């Protein structure tokens, strides 16, 4: 069983930056692909970014491309989401997910691809 714990959310002004962290514990971490999703009340959880276990391949939603960067540190069992140039529309609860087995890049953009989820961390961007 894998547990994921997100941290780093908070309140920031538009144009500011935040770095989210997702720490994994439990079974070995190296086999996983990890993803970040976000959700606002009344809407579906949407894909933000994903990274393969090797860390060589990363994927982004068009809405965050060029502003957000996903990375991982396997020695710390942690995945990060560096968020720059934040906009009010980035306000959401951000969740990290973990996938156990191989997946195509397109499938990693889908919520159902992930086997484990953290509890979420709130990000609020004021205008």
Structure commentary:
This protein has strands at 2-7, 10-13, 18-26, 33-39, 46-51, 58-60, 68-73, 78-83, 92-99, 116-117, 121-126. It is mainly β and 127 residues long. The strands form 2 sheets. Strands 2, 4, 5, 6, 9, 10 and 11 form a 7-stranded mixed beta sheet that branches. A 4-stranded antiparallel beta sheet has the order 1-3-8-7, with no helix packed on it. A hairpin with a 4-residue loop joins strand 7 (68-73) and strand 8 (78-83). The N and C termini lie far apart (40 Å). The relative contact order is 0.31.
Poorly predicted runs of 5 or more residues: none
Mean pLDDT: 93
Largest sheet composition: 7 strands, mixed
| DSSP strand count | 11
β-strand percent reads over 45%
Shape descriptor reads globular
Described by its quaternary structure, the protein is single chain
Topology:
Elements: E1 2-7, E2 10-13, E3 18-26, E4 33-39, E5 46-51, E6 58-60, E7 68-73, E8 78-83, E9 92-99, E10 116-117, E11 121-126
Parallel strand pairs: 2-11
Antiparallel strand pairs: 1-3, 3-8, 4-5, 4-9, 5-6, 7-8, 9-10, 9-11
């Amino acid at each position: 069983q894998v547990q994921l714990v997100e941290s780093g959310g908070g309140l920031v002004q538009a144009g500011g930056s935040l770095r989210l962290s997702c720490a994994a514990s439990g079974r070995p971490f190296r086999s996983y692909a990890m993803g970040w999703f976000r959700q606002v009340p009344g809407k579906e959880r949407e894909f933000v970014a994903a990274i393969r276990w090797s860390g060589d391949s990363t994927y982004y939603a068009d809405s965050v491309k060029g502003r957000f960067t996903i990375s991982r540190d396997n020695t710390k069992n942690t995945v990060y989401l560096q968020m720059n140039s934040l906009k009010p529309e980035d306000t959401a609860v951000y969740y990290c997910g973990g996938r156990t087995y191989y997946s195509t890049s397109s499938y990693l953009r889908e919520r159902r691809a992930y086997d484990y989820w953290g509890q979420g961390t709130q990000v609020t961007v004021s205008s």
